[in-house]
Specification:
homodimer; Tetracycline Repressor, domain 2; three-stranded mixed beta sheet; 6% strand
Chain lengths: 455, 455
């Protein structure tokens, strides 16, 4: 990529615009946008004007909002109109959502009235709904058309549609009654009726359906487009597979961020300001810090015990961390399974039963290794005479018990969160760690008190 | 769903097979497979035989390997042949990979010779390569065909192809020289040459390209199919968007599992055995437990200091956890950005500069709140006279310094891992936590020694 940018920059410098254009048109919109990002801002408007109209729109859609705004501010009204009218309605609506008010006004003013109406309609749907990611451009057919007429209609009107691979059949009241793929149309005889080759069991979503559910449906059924209908089952748009992929990636990123105690952001890292990164990270850090008061309280009430058996202190971090790690393994597994639909809240019984057995295996194996490690490394290698067999026994029993508790807490909390309609992802590592810290200390001191006869 | 299953079970019980079949054919393959999972195993073969041939193949592909095996074992050779011959080559190859050896032998014996050859070829590609997820069924055209001839060819041969939305143009030596969408074909005049409407700048991948890179390319370019070529740029297959979505979801799950110190598994949770869950979780737990020896060593060398100022002990878990959480926020953000391509290893400078500023903001704000919390909650509310102003000062200074270190370690480690070709995801929370635990204790005792004049 590096050489392409320098080549383009050099061509522009030497005012060899025709060659720059020839170079650009060999490239794909997404690649051109990536190259543009690397070039100095002042060359963008000139370069952009070199692109053929359709390619220009493709590049524009792939650019970052800051660059889009910069370009729009440099456009004449005519140039703006040319770009906006080439955009698909859902991309135009996304653009309007990203731009500041005065830019939005110019966009809506210059847009074709039909497009303006569609943009306004799309903006009405709630964020993260199927309506907000759908496009209203699709091919609709009528049941009594012949295949030949249908293909003629696609030829006449299909040129601007984002996808013509699936056509939708509606009745007089615009109710969705069937679907037919271009493939079936091409493979059918010209005089066959659309009604006879259409698939009548159409799977569709409501405009208000969550975008994640919508994308998951498309993944499940291997669809390249999914029709969106209103309350009366009238066809209002389609969600295309490229937007579904974006949703799947976004939602995975959001889950990952929530699991790491970060509020989700929708901008790429390098383009997010320091202050907004801070404000996404600080709430959970504060909450978790304050809740660590419980561990202080527990430690403080066992201060005398620790003074009497100071070797116990050495293993607190190991016990807390191993507990935290065991718990987050369980919670993260369940969170991901919930979001993939592999586990439902109704499975809570089998989840607990499974985690209990895994926890016993982990507890046994780690407890044994832990006993060996404490006796070998901490006692023999470190020459610490305070690390006695009873101490090692306390540590490894605590280890096993903590793992059991941690796994059980870790697997149940996300399911409970889901049941009370919270996002299960917030019950991941940091949250579990805080709970397990307190639990492991309580277990530690309980076992120590009964085995070591502390003061 | 619940009612569908009981309805089907009831129909089967009463031997109303025709009605059961009528019910089934209103449904989609993926839905039928989901319903079958819930039904008792012994009804499956009978139900399956009710399905029309093509739908049966669709359902079969969506079933879990255990159920597929069960069905195959019950099939006569003829029945097996009917199902296998309806499968797309890539699905058939997946099936062969999942089945035990004796079942594989039967499948390959009954498969059509052409299909058998293709399956064997597909199995030769390395796991997780583009070759392993591609299908070899696609429509190829020649440059000198007219649009009319092309459409005729699609009609004649396209019926078995997994996707006919994109056609690929090859020269005499099977080199890929262009691509054309069905959309362009339909919208063009019948006597136009394919050569004149084809896109010549074809984006393709090599058979050995990583499947994640392949899927990310399709997401980036909004493709529904991506051609796969061999070393000599001869067309050997295509990857379709439904398989790309599966790869994107799988890779996100793998990243999430690695971040939680779990070895990735490719089975849904409820279908994974207790022993294999254990074996995926125990290696990291063991490694992290043993590496906690460092924190024991540090604690042990500061035992006297802790005895002199026992209040210091109370804040160890809080400092370690906050450090761990801060570090994993940074590492998880960078890991995800690396895998989405938002951050490249070359950006390490700007990443460190950004994280340093975020860390200063987080350190300042948390340090201040921490000072207040310690003085108010731990000193006043808990009536602990040992918690003095100097102690609170030591705690909040340590907090700020730990956050700075944790964020820097958290943001650099994943990038370094990527540079030395390790998976950055292993540098997430648990790994960072172990390092930050040791760091935070060292900082704590260094600051305490200089401010509190410990023994």
């Amino acid at each position: 990529m590096a050489s392409l940018e320098s080549a383009l920059a050099a061509l522009m410098e030497e005012k060899k615009y025709a060659s720059a254009r020839d170079l650009l048109i060999t490239m794909n919109g997404a690649d051109i946008a990536a190259v543009f990002t690397e070039l100095p801002d002042e060359t963008l408007p000139l370069l952009f004007r070199l692109l053929p109209k359709e390619l220009a729109a493709e590049v524009f859609v792939e650019m970052e909002p800051e660059e889009q705004e910069l370009l729009i501010r440099g456009f004449s009204d005519n140039e703006l109109k040319e770009v906006v009218d080439e955009l698909y309605a859902d991309d135009a609506a996304d653009l309007v959502e990203e731009m500041p008010a005065n830019v939005v006004k110019r966009i809506l003013k210059t847009a074709d009235p039909d497009l303006r109406k569609t943009i306004n309609e799309l903006l009405k749907y709630p964020e993260d709904s199927a309506g907000s990611i759908m496009t209203t451009e699709m091919v609709t057919l009528r049941p009594l058309m012949t295949v030949g007429e249908a293909i003629k209609r696609i030829r006449r009107t299909g040129i601007d549609k984002e996808t013509v691979y699936n056509c939708y059949i509606t009745d007089d009241a615009r109710h969705l009654i069937g679907t037919v793929s271009i493939r079936s149309l091409i493979l059918a005889e010209d005089d066959e009726l659309v009604r006879n080759i259409m698939e009548e069991n159409v799977i569709s979503v409501n405009t208000l359906e969550d975008q994640e559910t919508t994308a998951e449906m498309m993944a499940k059924y291997d669809f390249t487009a999914l029709p969106v209908v209103d309350k009366e089952r009238r066809l209002v748009g389609i969600v295309t597979v490229d937007d579904a992929i974006d949703v799947i990636k976004e939602e995975a990123t959001e889950d990952i961020e929530r699991m790491a105690a970060i509020l989700p952001s929708d901008k790429p890292y390098l383009r997010t300001g320091v202050f907004s990164i801070w404000s996404n990270r600080i709430p959970w850090l504060l909450l978790l810090m304050v809740s660590a008061t419980f561990t202080s309280m527990i430690l403080s009430s066992f201060e005398n015990a620790l003074a009497a058996q100071s070797a116990l202190l050495l293993f607190i971090p190991m016990l807390m961390d191993t507990g935290g790690n065991s718990g987050s393994q369980a919670s993260v597994t369940i969170i991901r399974s919930l979001s993939l639909g592999d586990v439902e809240p109704a499975d809570i019984g089998s989840v607990i039963w499974k985690e209990m057995r895994v926890a016993l295996l982990c507890g046994l194996s780690l407890g044994l290794v832990c006993f060996g490690k404490v006796m070998l490394i901490d006692r023999l290698l470190m020459h610490n005479p305070e690390v006695t067999v009873p101490v090692a026994l306390v540590v490894c029993l605590t280890m096993a018990a903590t793992i059991l508790c941690a796994k059980l807490v870790g697997c149940t909390l996300p399911i409970i969160a889901k049941l009370v309609r919270l996002d299960p992802a917030v019950c991941a590592s940091p949250f579990i760690t805080t709970i397990v810290d307190a639990l492991s200390l309580l277990i530690y001191f309980a076992i120590a008190s009964s085995l070591l006869r502390l003061v």
